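P.,

For your records, the input lines for the assembly:
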Amino acid sequence: KQEVTQIPAALSVPEGENLVLNCSFTDSAIYNLQWFRQDPGKGLTSLLLIQSSQREQTSGRLNASLDKSSGRSTLYIAASQPGDSATYLCAALGDRDDKIIFGKGTRLHILP
Amino acid sequence: EAGVAQSPRYKIIEKRQSVAFWCNPISGHATLYWYQQILGQGPKLLIQFQNNGVVDDSQLPKDRFSAERLKGVDSTLKIQPAKLEDSAVYLCASRSSREITGELFFGEGSRLTVL
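Structure tokens returned:
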């Protein structure tokens, strides 16, 4: 049974710093891994999607990497801004079924 | 391209009352999910549809929750009777086929408060 863990649960960093959010999964048989952002009271917004055959994806200041063999994905945010404050969730789509398992998220606070 | 539509955005009811949430997925998305998200937690899958068939409803409290997806497009999630612990955001998501990207898209969610 797939389990997805995100560490840390919460993170506060000063504006301008680069930071890394971690996502680990127990079953490496994934089809893709997706990173989402959730603002308070809102739905989830897709940030990056990495297919199992890919190593990384980039969008602006965001870079997500995937290492299936070690069961890890990281989301790198460069030059953080107060507007980046939100909860970041990762989700893994199973390769053998259509189950999508979410982590509990990392609550990020960028200090002005 | 229109996104996933959900309604209502907010609903306040008293315990033992009933409530229904509606979801319209992105056009052409065969797979539809309903998630429950309690404050401070990640989304928990309630039910997954492939077209109008149920793929997974193992975590749906079937004594009070029901869901349907008639004609394989719109879906409705119903709670009857509601309990205090049902207070949560109910998120609907649809997914493109694996042959495309398998990307998951969410609606804005329906926030339920049970008093």
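Two observations worth noting. The two ends of chain A are 41 Å apart (CA to CA). The interface with chain B takes residues 31-32, 34, 36, 41-46, 49, 51, 89, 91, 93, 98-100, 102-105 of chain A (CB under 8 Å).

Regards
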